[in-house]
Amino acid sequence: MLDRANIFNQLQTLVVQSAPHQPAIDQARIIWLEAVARGAALRELVASRQWPFPVPLWYEALDTTYTVQPFAKDYGIVGVDGSQIYPDRFYSNVDCFVINTGGISVAYQKPQSAVTFFSQPYVYTLRDVVKRYGCDASGSKDLIDLIREEYEFKDGLAAANTFRELHSELPFLCLFDGSFVFWHLEGKPPEIKELFLSTYMLYLRKFQEQRIPVASYISLPRNRELCNALRIVMCERYASQQIFCFADQACACKILQEITDVDLVAQFVKPGQRTGIFMSRSSIADYYFDELRPCFFFLNVGDEIGRVELPWWMAKDPQQVDFVAQVVIDQAAKGIGYPMVLAEAHERAVIKHHDKLFFYELLEKLYSQQHAGRLLALKNIRKRRMPI
């Protein structure tokens, strides 16, 4: 049982400490203006070499903004999300887990819009994972997360194709929650990285081949890629020795530890505007096919500045970028600050506590009907039937 007063005091301290200090933002704004003034020289310097931290490429002025015009025509959108039930070690005889994808397809058209919901569960055992993927997931929730992401792409593509068959006359977008920069694969063993990255690329390639616009939305992004561009400008040790200080608290660039890209972008992107296009240069992005390299822009939807990601084959097409920005900002307006289809997709995908109880109780019942002995560990039984 939580000591709520103690939790309150600790959280209050953490929230105060985590908020960026205004002096840091003010100083970063000055350096940002210096970076903007350096223009093509800084852009060419960034592109000329690999850096020890992710610094994106850009193709226009750093402070380029575009006002997003309302999308005046009918359009469609497919939103996709996923969730899971991890294996419970107290069910020692059957190591089952569940992946659930959910989503919504909406055709905004006259005289009447059309809405379709979907939810698709997949039940696995850890032995199934070994057979299909050749790796052991018994000690890793990360591997189950990777499998979930595969099914999100799979079912998102299927939903997009179904939507196109039903509404061939409508332009539409398939929107995912999360990032197309698969950071979580960077630290994985080579065989895991290659297996899942090739799988994700397969689905992203199918979106491209079938000319299905696809993008992802990240709410409250904490990325520091633009901040890393400022590090090149303001790191004193780099200026004198061509070596970055990183943890040197005496260096001027230490203020960048307190801010994020959104803190920088908020200085010049007004509600209803977006930035120019940036291309990710994270180490994992080097494994992508050129046309699938992840790009992004920041979009001020009014209540927040979100990060919108899309593959290069779309990012290099101004009409595609405009369409994505228009649809996302319209969805954010419909969803009171967050894209409506992603909120609804989450509701279809999320596995709530009572769903987990149903799954475990059904698993226990089915097992007890077919096998002698107890499936549920005594610890779990005691937790459910704790005497007073």
Structural class: alpha+beta
Shape: globular
**Uncertain stretches of 5 or more adjacent residues:** none
Provide mean pLDDT, rounded.
89
Main sheet makeup: 9 strands, mixed
Order of secondary-structure elements: HHEEEEEHHEHEHHHEEEEHHHHH
Distance between the termini: 15 Å
Tally of discrete structural domains: 2
Number of helices: 13
How many β-strands, per DSSP? 11
Fraction in beta strands = 15-25%
Order of strands across the main sheet? 1-9-10-11-7-6-3-4-5
The rounded Rg comes to 24 Å
Helix content: 40-55%
Could you characterize what this model shows?
The protein has 388 residues and is of the alpha+beta class. It has two domains: 65-351, no CATH class; 354-383. The chain has helices at 4-18, 22-47, 126-133, 141-166, 190-209, 225-234, 236-241, 261-265, 312-315, 318-334, 340-349, 353-370, 378-384, and strands at 57-58, 65-67, 75-85, 96-108, 114-125, 172-177, 214-218, 273-275, 278-279, 294-300, 305-311. A nine-stranded mixed β-sheet has the order 1-9-10-11-7-6-3-4-5, sandwiched between helices. Strand 4 (96-108) and strand 5 form a beta hairpin. Helix 2 crosses helix 6. The radius of gyration is 24 Å and the shape is globular. The two termini are 15 Å apart.
Task: List the SSEs and their pairings.
Layout: H1 4-18, H2 22-47, E1 57-58, E2 65-67, E3 75-85, E4 96-108, E5 114-125, H3 126-133, H4 141-166, E6 172-177, H5 190-209, E7 214-218, H6 225-234, H7 236-241, H8 261-265, E8 273-275, E9 278-279, E10 294-300, E11 305-311, H9 312-315, H10 318-334, H11 340-349, H12 353-370, H13 378-384
Parallel strand pairs: 3-6, 6-7
Antiparallel strand pairs: 1-9, 2-8, 3-4, 4-5, 7-11, 9-10, 10-11
Helix pairs in contact: 2-6, 4-5
